[in-house]
TrEMBL record:
Protein name: HTH lacI-type domain-containing protein
PROSITE patterns: HTH_LACI_2
GO molecular function, a single term: transcription cis-regulatory region binding
Organism: Chryseobacterium glaciei
Membrane-spanning intervals of the chain: 63-80
Superkingdom of source: Bacteria
Keyword terms, alphabetized: DNA-binding, Membrane, Transcription, Transcription regulation, Transmembrane, Transmembrane helix
All copies of domain HTH lacI-type, residue ranges: 4-58
Length: 324
């Protein structure tokens, strides 16, 4: 069954499309009897207003594009919930695009957002993204963008990130206070700015205590963590572990279970969204990275920019970075 349009209703009732349109909007120039007939016909034939056409006339799609490196069980769902809580309240819809952690797909996703006439874009960058060349068209068209979580050094767009240096330092302090002397620090993708920031801060704090030995490894997935720990745990006696993310933590946990080390007097701390550690092992400690809060802040900042554009027609402003 095809979608019923205003034109269809007008033909059924033998009146003009403009009369139907004004009747549906409860315009005072239209009589009560005509309004009633139009509404009855609209309900009978399941007429649904074309939001895209309405918003197009208003020069607003009320749609936001959300681009993430990949859809996973770690962290991203909580960010999406935060974004949704803000956008839905303000009458916006959004669609989610996965870049498969490649800059080529990210570029395609940017074009999809442009073609879809989005009012703004929320994006977490891929591990391959080294510059903003493929964002140039968006910038020229003055489509508001807020980058969150995974970023690269830039001065082009607003961004929302965790205080990665502080969180890593706090995790290091936790292991130090617990008397750990032989620590394994597990980091993610070595090419990412977030990994380097967390590693630099963690090792800087540990380096203040020469008696502490610390080994670092880089793992792009939980499976890689398990592969590397199969060897490391058989050759070393670590008394403290740091996992820079939920993904690295779940790989660590699996290895500790396999070697029965989870029952020993070791200390484990992670930077986490907060849910996973409590289900894995109640003894695990964590420094929380609240994805829900990040989603709220990122969406709120984007709407501020969009509303600024509505007010003065320009996005020319100094970008800011919001630390959580």
């Amino acid at each position: 069954m095809k979608r019923t349009t205003i034109k269809d209703l007008a033909e059924m009732l033998n009146i003009s499309t403009s009369t139907v349109s004004r009747a549906l909007k409860d315009h005072p120039d239209i009589s009560s009897s005509v309004k009633l007939k139009v509404r009855e016909a609209a309900e009978t034939f399941n007429y649904v207003p074309n939001d895209f056409a309405i918003n197009f006339r208003k020069k607003s799609s009320k749609v936001i594009g959300l681009i993430v490196p990949e859809i996973s069980m770690f962290f991203i769902p909580s960010i999406i919930r935060g974004i949704s809580s803000v956008l839905n309240k303000e009458g916006y819809h959004f669609f989610i695009l996965s870049s498969d952690d490649t800059s080529a797909t990210e570029e395609q996703n940017i074009q999809t957002c442009i073609n879809s006439r989005v009012d703004g874009i929320l994006v977490s960058l891929t591990k391959e993204t080294k510059d903003f060349q493929h964002f140039q068209k968006v910038k020229e068209m003055e489509i508001p963008i807020v980058i969150f979580d995974k970023i690269i050094p830039h001065h082009s767009f607003d961004s929302v990130i965790f205080d990665n240096a502080k969180n890593s330092e706090l995790c290091a302090e936790n292991l130090i206070k617990n008397g750990c002397k032989n620590i394994l620090a597990i980091f993610g993708d070595e090419s990412l700015d977030i990994t380097q920031t967390r590693m630099d801060s963690f090792l800087k704090k540990i380096g203040e205590f020469p008696e502490i030995e610390c080994k670092t490894i880089f793992c792009e997935s939980a499976d890689v963590v398990k592969e590397k720990l199969d060897i490391l745990l058989s050759q070393n006696n670590f008394d403290g572990f740091f996992a820079m993310s939920d993904e690295t933590l779940i790989g660590l946990h699996s290895s500790l279970i396999k070697t029965n080390l989870h029952n020993s007097n070791i200390k484990v701390i992670a930077i986490s969204e907060g849910t996973l550690p409590k289900y894995l092992d109640e003894s695990y400690q964590f420094q929380i990275n609240d994805g829900y809060k990040m989603g709220i802040i990122a969406a709120s900042e984007l709407l501020k920019i969009i509303n600024k554009v509505d007010d003065d027609g320009s996005t020319r402003r100094l970008p800011t970075t919001h630390l959580i």
